[in-house]
Amino acid sequence: MIVTFDLFSALTDSRAGASAAFAGIAAERGWSLTGEELYDVWDRHNKQAQRTARADRWVSFRALSRHALAAAYAELGLGADPYADLNRVQDVASWPLWPDVADGVRAVAQRARVGILSNVDDDLAAATRAYRLVEPDLVLTSQRLGAYKPHPEIYQRAREHAGELVHVAASARDVRGALDAGIATVRLVRPGHRLDPAGPVPDVEVSDARDLPAALDRLG
């Protein structure tokens, strides 16, 4: 069995990690916005950029992130250089894993091969704390597969590369994308993420990664 995990929702608390960087930037510049407020606007533009990215014309995750940060600063009326700020905001090596992740992924690895399926560049994936918990050959990035979630191509190409797999997703768009692509999906509930009320519902849902082995048993 092969089990892939979403990197920046299921495994990594990306909002906490990037918000801390934004908070430092805001404090230095006297901005009244919180780190979380800055992150949420940037994240919205990031997701929009990924939704509209074309599978036949590759643009790196880092480039999309820069464009999204520029759009966020423009929306908020902030005169700042997104190119200078991005490396500081996207210091993924400092972004924390959710507390249950290390034990949960290791438990899954006792019975399955484990990897990552994520909208990210290869170098950023390798810099994360989650990278050391999975098999490098199964780190299936948008750069490697040439597509972004929630486009069906990324899920189809992941299956072509790795074979049949189970995907552990947290965000609504990832749950829906994987299920629409016919991939068995376990939803790992994370703060701030809710299912799309108009979308499909996974057969199995857990609120702690350490419960994933039992969830995989339920999937059969």
Walkthrough of the structure:
This protein is of the alpha/beta class and 220 residues long. It has eleven helices and six strands. It is globular and about 55 Å long. A six-stranded parallel sheet has the order 3-2-1-4-5-6, sandwiched between helices. The longest helix has 18 residues, at 35-52. It has helices at residues 7-11, 14-29, 35-52, 61-76, 82-89, 101-109, 122-127, 142-145, 152-162, 172-180, 212-219; strands spanning 2-5, 113-118, 139-141, 166-169, 184-188, 204-206. α2 (14-29) packs across α3 and α3 (35-52) packs across α4 (61-76). It folds into two domains: 2-13 and 97-219, Rossmann fold (3-Layer(aba) Sandwich); 19-93, DNA polymerase, domain 1, CATH 1.10.150.
Radius of gyration: 17 Å
Question: What's the level 1 CATH class of the largest domain?
Answer: Alpha Beta
CATH superfamily of the largest domain: HAD superfamily/HAD-like
The number of distinct helices, counting runs of at least 4 residues, comes to 11
The residue ranges in which pLDDT falls below 50 over 5 or more consecutive positions are none
Please bin the fraction of helical residues.
40-55%
Q: How does CATH name the architecture of the largest domain?
A: 3-Layer(aba) Sandwich
Shape: globular
Q: How many E strands?
A: 6
What pattern of helices and strands is seen along the backbone?
EHHHHHHEHEHHEHEEH
Sketch the major β-sheet.
6 strands, parallel
Strand order of the largest sheet: 3-2-1-4-5-6
- Terminal residue distance: 11 Å
Structural class call reads alpha/beta
The CATH topology of the largest domain: Rossmann fold
Q: Give the rounded overall mean pLDDT.
A: 95
What number of domains? 2
SS strand fraction: 5-15%
